[in-house]
Amino acid sequence: MEPLYQQTHKQVHEIQSHMARLETADKQSLHLVENEIQASIDQIFNHLERLEILSSKEPPNKRQNAKLRVDQLKYDVQHLQTALSNFQHRRYAREQQERQREALLSRTFTTNVSQAWGGDLQVLGGSLELRLGSWSFILFGGI
Fold first, then answer.
1. In the record, which residues are listed under signal peptide (predicted)?
2. In terms of CB atoms within 10 Å, which of 12, 105, 112, 119 comes out highest?
3. Per the structure, how many domains does the chain have?
4. Which residue range forms the structural domain that includes residue 33?
């Protein structure tokens, strides 16, 4: 049990150092680093299953300590998995915001008035003149 525990513990520390690389990696290598970390986490989960079995076979006087050590490793790996998921979620949200920003920048905007009148500003101009004329007639005593 001890060699597998030491190997797994070492892998956990390696993943922690790889997590720091996520923040500094460029866009091309980011997916590779994420996949590498996820593969290591999956491998550690497999090791933890084996360690749980081995810890239950330890002598009674060592069993509790062995289970505690395995539980601590489980907690550490779950924390790493959550940290990776949070990082991926933030990255996806950031990429979506960038796509939305690019879509907005490439879109051509028109005024609301031209959209309401189907883009025919000449008709709109004539309509406004009629309205203004009728109001001025009412205001200046045409009644």
1. none
2. 12
3. 2
4. 2-106
